[in-house]
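Support request, please re-run this one:
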Amino acid sequence: MLMISYLLLSLILFLLCYFKRWYLLCWLSYATFLISFLAIIPLPGQDEIKYTQPTQVVFRFDEHRYLQLTGYGCRGRLYYIDDQKLIYYELARHSAEVLTEPFAHMPEDYIFIPYEDYSAIQFSQDGGHSFDSIYIQDRDLNGDYRPNRETTESMVVLNNQFFLKDKNRGIFRSPKPYGTSSTVLSPANEKYLEYQINYMGERWSDAPQTMPAIHNNYTGWHQWRCDPSLKQEITVYNRYNPLIQLQAKLRHLLGVTTKGDKA
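Re-run finished. Output below.
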């Protein structure tokens, strides 16, 4: 009501001074009318809160090296990031899924990141600057075999070598040193492949009977982590926000500040 009174009073003064030719008073009353009108006119819109795909660290090698996932429900775009070396490598554009089995990875130059279905591994030999893919495969007289999410028990990367424990076929591992695109093999098929091109001789010696133990000084995670219910809020700012703030100041100046006004 006070704002309407300001408008009516300024309008009456404007009309009076116009007919009386009191031009200075006309301008003052006209300015009062404009200020009152700007203070009372409703402005459209308000700031909105929307949700976008959340980004979270799903695995950490150490304090500077980690895997980051952007997507809903722990599935989406996966990056390998090294803050110290300024590496930001996209491992999967939209289809990566968080692993659930135990996984420990010493922060070494060789990096092994299994696919979510364990059909293959993305690996890097240069500290994460570039990655390649190899299939995890075991071949014997009964045919081909690959681990999957139901048969994989745990994984360890130690001394630049990858180890995967499978319920059915024992321990799969990469050769040492890696250095080639050879498939990852388990101990069971080495004799079968002894005369095949995939066999690497001494690079496959000393087949482990148990999974290697991670070092005591390991500071990384022992499992991937992800919050499937995580939401990331963003504020969509109203384009009339500067005018809304100006209007609040005018109302405060005129003594008609309302609840919710931002001075």
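Residues 51-204 form one domain. The mean pLDDT is 78.
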